[in-house]
Amino acid sequence: MAEGLQQLIDELGKGWRAERSLSQLTLGQLIEKLEKLDGRKEIVGIGYAMSYRGYYSDLAFEPGDEVRTVGDLLGDCTSALGSTFTGYKGGDYVMDEHTPLWISAYGCCGDKLMGLNLSVDPITPVVEKEEH
Fold this sequence. Notes:
About 30% of the residues are buried. This protein has three helices and nine strands. Strand 7 and strand 8 (about 110-115) form a beta hairpin. The chain has one domain (about 1-130). The protein is about 30% helix and about 25% strand. Helix 2 (about 25-35) packs antiparallel against helix 3. The protein has helices spanning about 1-25, 25-35, 70-80, and strands at about 40-45, 50, 60, 65-70, 85, 90-95, 100-105, 110-115, 125-130. The N and C termini lie far apart (about 30 Å). By secondary structure, it is an alpha+beta fold.
């Protein structure tokens, strides 16, 4: 009985994740965007990757003022593909190209990552506030 209930919960979670991936940037899409840019260009506001507090199966990047290169961020993103991250309260989650992305401090809910603002130097994230 408990096993069947867990399977149902897992399937629902996959469906909700798929819906989120349609309305915000995914790991695969971010990698594609970064691959088209000069790896030496600077980017700010997208820190290091972790499991997102709001949906553990999603990936979040720390916000902040640290300046990184596009190449550094691309390396982190490609390393995250297929990697397992531990959720805020436990559980293991494998990230793939369809993983929705967020900008969020550790342990907090944050903003949807929607794209990159390429018209400024350094590059910055384009975010949308999450509606609760």
